[in-house]
Fold:
Amino acid sequence: MSKKEKDPKIQEKITEFKNLCNALGLKLTHQRLEIFSELCRSVDHPSAEILYKRLLKRISTLSLDTVYRTLMTFKEYGLIDKIETTENQSRFEVKMSTHHHFICKNCNKIYDFDWKDFDESALPDNLSNIGGVIHKSVIVYGYCNACDEKKNEKVNKLRF
Amino acid sequence: MSKKEKDPKIQEKITEFKNLCNALGLKLTHQRLEIFSELCRSVDHPSAEILYKRLLKRISTLSLDTVYRTLMTFKEYGLIDKIETTENQSRFEVKMSTHHHFICKNCNKIYDFDWKDFDESALPDNLSNIGGVIHKSVIVYGYCNACDEKKNEKVNKLRF
DNA sequence: AAGAAAATAAGTATTATTCTTATTTAGTAA
DNA sequence: TTACTAAATAAGAATAATACTTATTTTCTT
Structure:
């Protein structure tokens, strides 16, 4: 999995995380730090189970329940985001900056993309009849270029 | 549950459904028709289990598995939509027209809202690097007015 | 360094969804 | 209409995803 090992932004985020844990009265355990760091480094919006498998290499005694529980806690405190999907396995991310998601209908990969115009646009008035908005995001569906290429390879194989 | 029992739009949608089943080679079973109709009438984006419970009143021998299987099939053929959520129970809808979702952070209710300007707006260019888009939608989060009212009631009770 | 509160690991439990198989049904063709 | 065939269903078992229980360990405080 493509990681950004020593990206200063990640270091910064982890420092911020430590400070927030302190401020929130969350104990800064080894597990919490590793789970948060791993999720920070992950660019693929991993599930709890995927994270757990990656983390086992660093903490061999880690339990899957701890990953679930910790992600839950992080989410409750707004330290990470749970992603909206149609899959039945939850996926997570640490948001470094505002972005939106492209989800591939074939491979289910989630890609981030920026859309400044959207971020700056006002929501429709009729929303006030429903409630007060705290956060907005766009999800787009389609077939990612990687999947298209694979499909073309197969077609070419059939052809020759 | 607020239903629109004899709404002509729903009747139309059901007729369309029957035609599509025919065209797609899907057998038009009693179960399929009832499941589709019930989902059409539902304004609350129900889960498979909720649908199942409602349908039991009409088809006492219905099995939950049939509901799951049928919803899956419908989704595969694009007859219904599975909704993006952060919950672990899947939720579904029959889309009568383009709309977007407001999800209440407190009660998890999903409200529909229209946003024509968004529907007509062009997606950012950088998306072509990721893949070809087929569908786009907005999700907004917040606290719905119903939950706000309840909260205020509690506060008032505490106050007096 | 010691103690209290919180977090973890391990195993168990629950919830959500899917699979297996025998039976039934819809659509088709005689 | 009747009979046939493929597809769909019901029931129950199985799997997958997540959460709970409790004894032990760890962090943070003093």
Notes: The first strand of chain A starts at residue 81 and ends at 82. Residues 8-82 of chain A form a domain with the Arc Repressor Mutant, subunit A fold (CATH 1.10.10.10). Chain A is about 45% helix and 15% strand.
